[in-house]
Amino acid sequence: MTPRRPVDTGAPDRLYTVTGGRSRAADSFDLVTLVVSESRPTPGMQSEHARILELCSHPTAVVEIAAELSLPVTVVRILLDDLHVMGRITARHPRVAASHSELPDSELLKEVLHGLRKL
Amino acid sequence: MVSGSCELPAQRTPLADAAETGLKIVVVGGFGVGKTTLVRSVSEIRPLNTEEVMTQAGVGVDETSGVDAKTTTTVAFDFGRISLNERIVLYLFGAPGQERFWFLWDRLFSGTLGAVVLVDTRRMDDSWYAIDRLEHHGTPFVVAVNRFDDDVAHPLEEIRQALALPEHIPMIDCDARVRTSSKNVLITLVDHLRTMAIARETTQP
Predict the structure, then answer these.
(1) Which residues contact B136 (CB under 8 A, 6 or more apart)?
(2) Where are the domains of chain A?
(3) Looking at domain A12-117, which CATH architecture does it have?
(4) Is residue B78 domain-resident?
(5) Nearest-angstrom CA–CA distance, B143 and B135
(6) Is residue B15 part of a domain?
(7) CA distances in angstroms from B40 to B109, B122, B138, B171, listed in the order given
(8) B8 domain residue, yes or no
(9) Checking CA distances to A60, which of A48, A49, B164, B189 falls within 20 to 30 Å?
């Protein structure tokens, strides 16, 4: 089964319909924030919301949701914000500080190295 | 389970339920240098493509007009994924290094662990801008030289000089098509990051 494309991404105006006219999202969802559904889709729910809940029955990064839905990341952030407010998803945010010059701790990097070497 | 780069699953493979930490590494380089090839060769999923629509307060627009002038730009990027263990998943982003894209990067890639600058010796000009911006932002990086057609004309030291790259920045030869080679590039970067982190932790208790 091929999921339908929710909107024509070539027409920016229609993206405003998906997001109910909003163009700015809270910056709470990083590209690699992992999203997990807390409930199943319900009848009558906006199709993009339902699709996200289906996808996120396993942890799914924001950027993967955007790719799967063929929607720009900006739009996905807004949709996620809705679902978060409704209590239908939870978010596992990255541990790494969102600042340019801050390095993660060496223990985490050691784990990353270990994982890479095992590939 | 080891899968070759040619046998990536067509179906979406979900992450482990215990996955809790997403990490980012960015691969920067000029057009056609092999960014997507590198991402593909180490990714556990077929590289996906997505886009970010960026709204930028008008630059070069008359600000006295009283109108909230904005321009919208769409930037597309590829990404791949590596599950490092049950809890940690690494995302690799391939992004264009050209000058016109850089204002987007601040938001797109804030919080990235570090960057790989992928260099093609036939078009080294493309690398200068990326290196300059990464240095400016304080984003740690390594330089990987993608050797096309067994190109051995330029030794690494020569390229280091051509790029005016400081000694402390690691350089590595690679073949982006080969999984172990791309893997070594990532290891070189994370090794570099860890050395820096340890140095920082010992000087700032």
Answers:
(1) none
(2) 12-117
(3) Orthogonal Bundle (1.10)
(4) yes
(5) 12
(6) no
(7) 19, 22, 27, 21
(8) no
(9) B189
CATH of the domain at B167: 3.40.50.300
- pLDDT tens for chain B, 205 residues long, are 444 445 566 667 899 999 999 999 999 988 888 999 999 999 999 999 888 876 655 444 443 444 455 567 777 889 999 999 999 999 999 887 666 676 667 666 688 899 999 998 888 877 888 898 888 888 899 999 998 766 667 899 999 999 999 999 999 999 999 999 999 999 999 999 999 999 988 887 6
In contact, B15 and A34? CB cutoff 8 Å? yes
Quote the ipTM score.
0.85
CB contact under 8 A, A66 and B50: yes
Q: How many residues are present in chain A?
A: 119
pLDDT digits (tens, 9 = 90+) for B139-176: 899 999 998 766 667 899 999 999 999 999 999 999 99
Measured in angstroms, the CA of A1 and the nearest CA of chain B are apart by 11
Look at A112 and B113 and tell me if their CB atoms are within 8 Å.
yes
Q: Do A98 and B111 touch (CB under 8 A)?
A: yes
